[in-house]
Amino acid sequence: FHTLRSAPQRAFGTSLKMATKLTQDELKKMVGYKAVDDHVKSGMVVGLGTGSTAYFAVERVGQKLASGELTDIVAIPTSIRTKEQAESLNIPLVTLDTHSRLDVAIDGADLVDPALNLVKGGGGALFREKIVEASADKFIVIVDQSKIVDALGPAFPLPIECLPFCIEHTMRNLEALPAMQGAKAVLRRGSSANNQVDGEEIAISDNQCYLVDMHFDEPIKDPVALADQINKVVGTVEHGLFVGMTTSVIIAGEDGITVKDA
Ligand SMILES: O=C[C@H](O)[C@H](O)[C@H](O)COP(=O)(O)O
């Protein structure tokens, strides 16, 4: 997973300062555990996110099921990797085909703006994340302070999952969208948790699709318009803009944990 994430680079300005007190993993664990402790109750249908932060939420669900503190939980994973982690923890799994409504979904994010809009998909899991999280009554986002930005855009590229067929044509059409503001499309290469291919091979998503990362020089002015325009490009499957979906964001910062509600 970490190697797949290496394609888009994030600026870790604030987090380096925090790391002198708590490591990045300790911060991720704090918010992952808190999200489960605060929002997951026995009997719920729970969406399990993907990534290095969501990992700790999945771990916590597994712990609480094993101890008997939680019972009668079923969960829906948002990637093959999360499915494998959940199975290793004996978390009972179902799918959207049998459970179309979830009580809660918990996941990380690559960027969070002041309106709690997100960029997701740095780990390539955005389609399964979006279909699951759009079906949840509550969507809880867990991040460390480094993911909080004034506006989506330059701090982390926007991933778009696309069908492989004539990918260069689709990339040109994405670059030409008015709300794309001249962002440059880059086909993601390198390892993926799914196909375990290293080097210059094109990264393949869990859905056997390609990932195109849109690199912005300036803040995205209108995420709603951009999401709408991307959805109309033939050849795209889903994009990493999660607009108007967040219920709460739990943030680990140098002064402890804060919660922002939508
Ligand atoms: O595809 C990956 C997901 O959208 C992740 O939730 C996102 O990339 C954040 O991952 P992490 O918690 O590892 O920074």
TrEMBL record:
Q: Which InterPro entries does the UniProt entry name for this protein?
A: NagB/RpiA_transferase-like, Ribose-5P_isomerase, Ribose5P_isomerase_typA_subgr, Ribose5P_isomerase_type_A
Q: Which Pfam families match?
A: Rib_5-P_isom_A (PF06026)
The alphabetical list of record keywords is: Isomerase, Signal
GO biological processes: pentose-phosphate shunt, non-oxidative branch
Q: Which reaction does it catalyse?
A: aldehydo-D-ribose 5-phosphate = D-ribulose 5-phosphate
Q: In which pathway does it act?
A: Carbohydrate degradation; pentose phosphate pathway; D-ribose 5-phosphate from D-ribulose 5-phosphate (non-oxidative stage): step 1/1
Q: Which Gene3D superfamilies match?
A: 3.30.70.260, 3.40.50.1360
Q: Its Gene Ontology molecular function terms?
A: ribose-5-phosphate isomerase activity
**EC number(s) per UniProt?**
5.3.1.6
Q: Which SUPFAM superfamilies has this protein been placed in? A: D-ribose-5-phosphate isomerase (RpiA), lid domain, NagB/RpiA/CoA transferase-like
Family to which the UniProt record says this protein belongs:
Belongs to the ribose 5-phosphate isomerase family.
Which NCBIfam families does the entry mention? PRK00702.1 (NF001924), rpiA (TIGR00021)
Which HAMAP family does the record match to this protein? Answer: Rib_5P_isom_A
Name of this chain's protein: ribose-5-phosphate isomerase
What is the organism lineage in this UniProt record? Answer: Eukaryota, Sar, Stramenopiles, Ochrophyta, Bolidophyceae
